[in-house]
Amino acid sequence: MSVPQPGLADLDPVIHAPKRLAIMAVLSNSTSSDFAFLRGHLEVSESDLSKQMSALEAAGYVTVSKLGRGRGGVTTYRITRSGAAAYRRHRAALRALLGD
């Protein structure tokens, strides 16, 4: 019995967007990352990053922690188990499609 290879059906439309894919790559290799680090690393605006993080949070792929308020507040993101699993499936599908 052969194991089915990942394919188009395994590409996750939430993760597939380039900025969200980059975010998931960062979060999959860290215990957590804060908003300022992600914004600087991805070179995106605050509003753009907020929009991307909202999509990932709505999908259940990241959790958000907020400490403090206003300018001194820190927002931290962490990948969830389901987010990590979705990211692994998405990577495997990309590799299979690209022949990697």
Mind sketching the topology for me?
Blueprint: H1 13-16, H2 18-28, E1 33-34, H3 35-42, H4 46-58, E2 62-67, E3 74-79, H5 81-98
Class based on secondary structure composition and strand pairing:
alpha+beta
Major pleated sheet: 3 strands, antiparallel
Uncertain segments: none
The oligomerization state is: single chain
Number of helices: 5
User: Compute the gyration radius: what is it?
Assistant: 15 Å
E-strand count: 3
Q: Hey, roughly how much beta strand do the residues contain?
A: 5-15%
Can you walk me through this structure?
The chain is an alpha+beta fold and 100 residues long. The chain has one domain (8-93): Orthogonal Bundle (Arc Repressor Mutant, subunit A), CATH 1.10.10.10. Helix content is 54%, strand content 14%. The protein has five helices and three strands; from the N terminus they run ααβααββα. A three-stranded antiparallel sheet has the order 1-3-2. A hairpin with a 6-residue loop joins β2 (62-67) and β3 (74-79). It is elongated and about 50 Å long.
